[in-house]
Specification:
By secondary structure, the chain is α+β, with helices and mostly antiparallel strands. The protein has 3 helices and 5 strands. It folds into 2 domains: 33 residues; 95 residues, Nuclear Transport Factor 2, Chain: A (Roll), CATH 3.10.450.
Length: 134
């Protein structure tokens, strides 16, 4: 009986260790990933439902202005900001900024920018013509 139980316990321990290593490896690969915005996320950001970890209306902050500056730099030298029309934020491992703005030529654009905890900005959804929630 002992000859049967001891090998079985050994196999169970090895299987458990392998699953823990796989979970740790998956956690490391997603921990440094930049959050991407999907169509489902866009509809969630435009919802009025208040959820923990969800999107919330925000004031125009210096960070939101920096996020718009990053988007404008990507759009090119011909684009001039007129005003920031709306800001929504989502706290993740950093902050997502969904920003609607208009340019001097009268066009309305929106974009999503991720700000790391270290203050670095990454554009996750480039400038798109049209209202954020339109």
């Amino acid at each position: 009986m002992k000859k049967f139980v001891i090998p079985c316990l050994g196999l169970i321990l090895l299987a458990g260790c392998d699953q823990a290593q796989q979970s740790a490896a998956e956690g490391n690969s997603t921990q440094n990933a930049v959050p991407q915005v999907t169509d489902n996320a866009t509809s969630a950001m435009c919802s009025n439902e208040k959820l923990a970890g969800g999107w919330h209306d925000a004031d125009v902050s210096p960070e939101a202005e920096q996020a718009v500056d990053a988007v404008l730099a990507q759009m090119g030298n011909n684009v001039r900001l007129k005003s920031i029309l709306a800001v929504k934020t989502q706290v993740v491992n950093g902050t997502n900024y969904a920003i609607e703005f208009d340019t001097q030529d009268g066009q309305v654009w929106h974009a999503v920018v991720y700000r790391t905890l270290d203050g670095e900005f990454t554009i996750t959804q480039g400038a798109t013509l049209g209202d954020l929630c339109g």
